[in-house]
User: Fold this.
Amino acid sequence: MMANHNAFVVPEVNKLFARPKNEPVYWYLDRQVARWEIGLRQVENFDWIIFDGDLFQPLWFSWIYYDEPWTPLEEGKIFYQKHILEERIGFPDVYFVLWINPEERRKRAYKRGRCLNRDETRIARKIQRYDARRSSTQVFQGITS
Assistant:
């Protein structure tokens, strides 16, 4: 896609930046702003800028995984409002939602976990976590269809 459509891909946060040991409170959200800025710097050179992963993912993760240590939803909302008003981040012109069946997603998650040298327990926890998210997504799809 990159070569055929003159596209530049901005990788997801975890592929682009190394997490610091003592992660500052807004580190992950600031990295989303940095990804936007990386994309903007490439606008003149490419027809398409593709963000691998949603720039606003911390907001919906705060909602779906409310019992995990994500930035609280209200704080995330304030962070993004401020940065949008300052024109430091914005909304992409188009969103593409890619979907694979749950079994294929599990296989890919397992393979990726093994490539990252994660143990079986950690891989299984991540797969279970996303299976729970899938249930939330199904509820949302039922409401909107």
